[in-house]
Design goal:
The protein is mainly α. It has eleven helices and no strands.
Length: 243
């Protein structure tokens, strides 16, 4: 399950990075303007932020597997729709919704790993598992860039969308929420599954100064990271800098 979860989040990036990869071509070909793509990316990030809270809670309620399957299928669909219908209204609405679909990935994949890995081994396993978003990001850039170079920018949306759709189908067949769903058990630390979380504990948690410090630090890092995600290639190539 840890390996399946690894590839789940790995492939989330294939339908997250493709717009940033093709931005320059979209602008050069007069499909969209910089301002239009900027608004689409801003809406994506805003919805993604809200969705992180909402989809984590929904994963606790309905199971991580359900949220991951929905997120992958709908993100794949969003990518295909943009490739087939390159209209600004569709881009803005679909890419914004993609932020909601994408936000199912991190909290629910972490929930899967937590369910399948004993507490004493979790740090070690997560150290390796967290490579999924690094390798996924690099691979997504390469695949979208290669496909665009060979077949055009529309293919960068269509090929990645279809690929993730196949991955979502595999995940829906084989991914399991927890060992208990198949009759397996192992020793857990009390409260580690989230079943014993007390009412109101979330609000007490987010008031913790350490959590607030980590959250503000990660917010700042995300701001820089997504700036490179969305505009890095455009800025480099539009200024004729060789990479």
């Amino acid at each position: 399950m840890v390996v399946l979860s690894f590839f789940s989040y790995f492939f989330y990036y294939f339908v997250r990075k493709n717009l940033g990869v093709v931005t320059l071509d979209l602008i050069d070909n007069g499909i969209f303007t910089e301002k239009q793509i900027g608004w689409a990316q801003t809406c994506y990030a805003s919805v993604y932020m809200v969705g992180q809270f909402m989809n984590g809670a929904l994963g606790d309620r309905f199971g991580a597997r359900v949220l991951l399957n929905i997120g992958l299928f709908l993100s794949a669909t969003a990518s295909v729709v943009i490739g087939l219908f390159p209209l600004y209204g569709i881009l803005l609405a679909t890419w914004s919704l993609n932020g909601l679909f994408q936000s199912t990935g991190w909290p629910n994949n972490c929930k899967i790993v937590a369910a399948w890995v004993p507490h004493r081994s979790r740090g070690k396993v997560m150290g390796f598992w967290a490579l999924c978003y690094v390798l996924g990001s690099i691979s997504a850039n390469f695949v979208a860039g290669y496909v665009m170079g060979e077949y055009g920018w529309k293919a960068a949306f269509l090929v990645t969308g279809v690929t993730v759709f196949v991955v979502a189908l595999i995940q829906s067949i084989f991914l399991i929420n927890s060992p208990e769903d198949r009759g397996f058990t192992f020793e857990r630390r009390e409260g580690s599954t989230g079943d014993t979380v007390r009412k109101g504990s979330f609000f007490r948690l987010i008031k913790n100064p350490v959590i607030l410090l980590y959250g503000s630090s990660y917010f700042s890092l995300k701001f820089i990271r997504y700036t490179f995600f969305t505009w890095g290639r455009f800025q480099v190539l539009s200024n004729k800098v060789l990479v």
